[in-house]
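Let's study a protein:

===
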Amino acid sequence: MSDLPRRFADAQARIKPKTGLANETMLELYALYKQATAGDATGDRPGMFDLRGRAKFDAWSKRKGTTKDAAMQAYIALVESITEDAR
């Protein structure tokens, strides 16, 4: 069995206490997490007054077609780049 799910969980634990990340980075982390755990975005796009929900949905929708494993790997790589920058 691959250790990818364990590395993905470890990356989640490492990034959770981080604060002060840019909105773009937070949206990218969200999109990769959702793609890795739920697959392609489903449902209707939130309305124009739900700016936060709409931004999250749009970020996730951009990942459409990305496999769960590829999303996990991209999430891990992004977390590693963020935690490396902090050192």
About this structure: Residues 4-85 form a domain with the Acyl-CoA Binding Protein fold (CATH 1.20.80.10). Residues 21 and 82 are 9 Å apart (CA to CA).
